[in-house]
Amino acid sequence: MQLSENQPAGIEISLWQYSMNERDRNRWVQSLSPDERDRAATYRFDRDRASFIAGRYLLRRLLSGYVATAPSKVVLVADEHGKLSLEGRDRPQFSLSNADGLVAVAVASGCERIGIDCERADTEIEEVTLDAYCSVDERRWLDELPAHERARAAVELWTLKESHLKAIGVGLRENPRNVTFSWEDSLPVAAHDGKRDRRWFHRLIESGSQHVVALAVCSRSGLPGIHTRLFQDDSMPSE
């Protein structure tokens, strides 16, 4: 994994294996907006509440460096589908994902669209679910894999599709089977509704944990440099 402590040009991916400590969580929530705090309070399960708070805390910490303001002052705007963006004209593209102990945030300059998704590598995907999101060719590819590789490959395929659908701003409102993947030179390649758009790039990112992380990028000038770092929370409470 390539680690960087600086804010690079291109795509910055920050991965955070956050703690479940309540004292830490009480500190993180101070960086959230009033609406985000209200939303956090609605989660029934502590694990889900911690995941939401950690995700928004990390997102605000990262974006605050781009707009030169405190994390709690970052203005996030949601479109009609709930996709977040920064208020203002000159703003980076970003995407956020949470999965049981890991937060992944991708921030990009010079890209048209970006999406990131993460899932636990040991997630069990039922056969009926595979049928619902795999094309015929994808299902054949999975079925031909050795048994010990099939489960992780299914999670990787799901995560790749999720990252693409998040990048175009529709999530699972669109049928996952409309996005199909194949592999060229061991790299994932997507077709949307049967058509390949060469502005799109997809990568599986090494997470350093028991998670699968996938990135989807739309860029007319080729794939920007990707810099991945493990986020370390060493901040003091926000004012």
Automatic annotation (TrEMBL):
Provide a Gene Ontology MF annotation, just one: holo-[acyl-carrier-protein] synthase activity
Keyword set, alphabetical order: Transferase
Organism of provenance: Rhizobium esperanzae
Pfam families tied to this protein: AASDHPPT_N, ACPS
Q: Which residues form the 4'-phosphopantetheinyl transferase N-terminal domain?
A: 25-106
- The residues the entry assigns to the signal sequence are none
Gene Ontology cellular component terms for the protein in this record: cytosol
Q: Name one GO biological process term.
A: lysine biosynthetic process via aminoadipic acid
Which part of the chain is the 4'-phosphopantetheinyl transferase domain?
Answer: 113-215
Per UniProt, the enzyme's principal EC class comes to transferase
Query: Is Transferase set as a keyword in this record?
Result: yes
| Lineage, broadest ranks | Bacteria, Pseudomonadati, Pseudomonadota, Alphaproteobacteria, Hyphomicrobiales
Q: Which family does it belong to?
A: Belongs to the P-Pant transferase superfamily. Gsp/Sfp/HetI/AcpT family.
Spell out the protein name for this chain: 4'-phosphopantetheinyl transferase
* Annotated EC: 2.7.8.-
